[in-house]
User: Which sequence fits this backbone?
């Protein structure tokens, strides 16, 4: 039995499409492309029996710096939540992760960069806080800039691939 069996409750047309296109996308790309329906390479959902939503490819960048650390969409999101809430604890809660996990991720980033990405003040009765440092804002901005550039780079190919899909 393959991953596209009837036990997964996925429309046959989606599974057929994914079975044909996904291996090629994954084999030829270092992008992580995901699906809401099957956990495979494409987002392609049925709205009505005769109408399909157009193909959507979401590049997800992951920056690896040897064994020191990795920086990707999750850590970028964590930094954005810290910036918005002013708290590692609130950022963790917003992302559905434990405070300890968020703290560990922040510490791993601090070890990988020349300067800390998050300015932290101790909690307690005065309720501590956290803000992005100048370096943290710069790193986050550069990461988002790279995401935008990668989306622009695949735009033409994405259109050509979309034209090959069944109506």
Assistant:
């Amino acid at each position: 039995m393959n991953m596209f069996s009837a036990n997964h409750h996925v429309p046959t047309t989606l599974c057929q499409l994914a079975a044909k296109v996904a291996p090629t996308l994954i084999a030829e790309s270092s992008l992580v492309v995901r699906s809401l329906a099957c956990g495979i390479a494409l987002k392609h959902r049925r709205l009505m029996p005769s109408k399909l939503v157009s193909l959507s490819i979401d590049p997800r960048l992951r920056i690896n710096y040897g064994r020191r650390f990795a920086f990707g969409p999750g850590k970028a999101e964590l930094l954005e939540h810290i910036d918005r809430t002013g708290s590692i604890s609130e950022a963790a809660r917003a992302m559905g992760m434990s405070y300890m996990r968020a703290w560990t991720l922040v510490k791993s980033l601090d070890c990988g960069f020349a300067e800390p990405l998050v300015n932290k003040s101790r909690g307690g009765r005065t309720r501590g806080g956290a803000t992005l440092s100048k370096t943290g804002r710069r790193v986050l901005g550069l990461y988002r800039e790279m995401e935008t550039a990668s989306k622009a780079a695949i735009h033409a190919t994405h259109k050509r691939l979309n034209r090959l899909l069944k109506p």
